[in-house]
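Retro notes, item 3 of 5
We never archived the inputs for the pyridoxal-5'-phosphate complex last cycle. Fixing that now. Sequence and ligand:
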Amino acid sequence: MSFLMETYSRMPISIVRGQGCRVWDENGHEYLDMVSGIAVCNLGHAHPKVVDALREQAKKLFHCSNLYQIPLQEELAGMIARHSFDSRVFFCNSGAEANEAAIKLARRYWNDHGKKGSRIITLEGSFHGRTLATVAATAQDKFRKGFNPIPEGFLAVPYGNIEAIDASIDDSVGAVMLEPIQGEGGINIPDRGYLEKVRHLCDKRGILMILDEVQTGMGRTGKLFCYMHEMVEPDIMTLAKAIGNGFPMGAMVAKPHVAEAFVPGSHASTFGGNPLAMACGIATLKVMVEENIAARAWEIGMYLMDCLVQLKAAHKAIKDVRGRGLMAGIEFDMDISSFNTAGLDKGILLNVIQSRILRIAPALVITKQEIDEAIAAIDAILTQKGL
Ligand SMILES: Cc1ncc(COP(=O)(O)O)c(C=O)c1O
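Structure as it came back at the time:
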């Protein structure tokens, strides 16, 4: 009997240690980790510089509250702004919180400027989190089922269709919110130029562009932030997952004129911007930038894609392979949920999403040899299952 609420159907292993792209369970079994805590430990498990930063900060101060100056917040916010776009940052603790903050900021901005309404257009298949406002923004029914009343103010349009967004904009709409590549929705990659078209549309119709980079950010797709693949800048960007390389934290980043809509008292978080999180965030971003981890993710991602194309050629059951950088998916025609446990037998952590898609999201420090190892394991699973 467990005292935990059953919000997860968990794999039958307990992971007790990790190093780089490898983890070990309590019985000493080693696994190649192709999940990285769902696109979180982008620098690999137990990265020495992040561990040192956390240890040094833990000796000094865990927490003090945002009632006081926290210089580490200033330092990390400045680093984020310098490496993204001219912006101000609000720190929180998760992706859902970052998106909640973005939704509130967009509403507050139009409340102050009076021109547009508070409604936000989102895309079918999106995933923005599990709080009430973020499930409302998440245009997948399964995440909303049984939680009525769902907050109003969101309008879902078909994915990848610029005309559908255009047609839905009226004076009640103040923003479009989207993931540059949909993660939980199935590694859905829009056509090149889609983000630019959304940006131009937002400019033309005078609404805000909110990019949820919770999963795509921090080097995952081969650029530090995924929007950098196109000539665009969002008005608001949300980050979480990899920003602390596993230390829980999130950030909502907004252009200064938009950020001004938040004043003391508008929004807050007890733990947001906590010194431990900031120390991890600074160390993580420093390594990302100094070692150009995003470029590495791009290069290894190209290699991965070559391997996936070959895998598809060898197995009829594979319907599609797609990805950018080290955010990739292998799509099947049938339910492949059993691959998660089949992976454990082969010494590899795998993650199936939408029951048909194998998500590949290893740490960005993965080597070509480790990619070969992962492909060989997936190949063996497919052969064993006669696929
Ligand atoms: C794009 C995106 N946004 C938001 C979230 C929610 O993040 P969290 O689980 O940290 O609340 C996720 C989580 O998978 C995500 O992929």
